[in-house]
UniProtKB/TrEMBL annotation:
UniProt gene name: fliS
Keyword Kinase: no
Location within or outside the cell: Cytoplasm, Cytosol
SUPFAM superfamilies reported in the protein's UniProt record: Flagellar export chaperone FliS
Record protein name field: Flagellar secretion chaperone FliS
Keyword Chaperone attached: yes
PANTHER family listed in its UniProt record: FLAGELLAR SECRETION CHAPERONE FLIS
Species this protein is from: Alteromonas salexigens
Length: 142
């Protein structure tokens, strides 16, 4: 029963965090969310909780698909195209892990996404502001 209150508190905090987050922070939250859901899926798989495993893999896949679909392939060039392909590959591996109940495939997704998340954290504040300003100007020009 106490866990219900804790989960409600966390959910409320997450909504507040999302409402006040800048685009960089939102992307970081999505990456962390995908990593968390992949870890939860792994735990469910180990416990043979297959319905929960499916839900967590589905949520992780949806997050990664969202990250993939928000890439600006025109501006990002080859780097964005490579990221698109990598996100696609991660979704494939999550699907394969679900079908085959393969923990190693979940670990592979984690090992691919973690360095991206870690690099995202290291982006200097000045670069974040510059990207945010360029995006704002692009929207105003349209």
């Amino acid at each position: 029963m106490a866990l219900t209150g804790i989960n409600a508190y966390r959910k409320g905090n997450t909504k507040q965090d999302v409402a006040s987050a800048d685009p960089h922070r939102l992307t970081l939250m999505l990456m962390q969310g995908a990593l968390d859901r992949t870890a939860y899926a792994k735990g469910a798989m180990e416990r043979k909780e297959y319905a929960a495993k499916g839900e967590y893999i589905s949520k992780a896949s949806a997050i990664i698909i969202h990250l993939r679909d928000t890439l600006d392939l025109d501006v990002g060039g080859e780097t964005a195209q490579n990221m698109y392909a990598l996100y696609d590959y991660m979704v494939e591996r999550l699907n394969d892990a679900h079908v085959k109940n393969d923990l190693k495939m979940l670990d592979e997704v984690t090992s691919l996404l973690t360095p991206i998340r870690d690099a995202w954290v290291q982006i200097p504040e000045s670069a974040k502001q510059e990207a945010f300003e360029a995006q704002r100007q692009k929207r105003q020009a349209v």
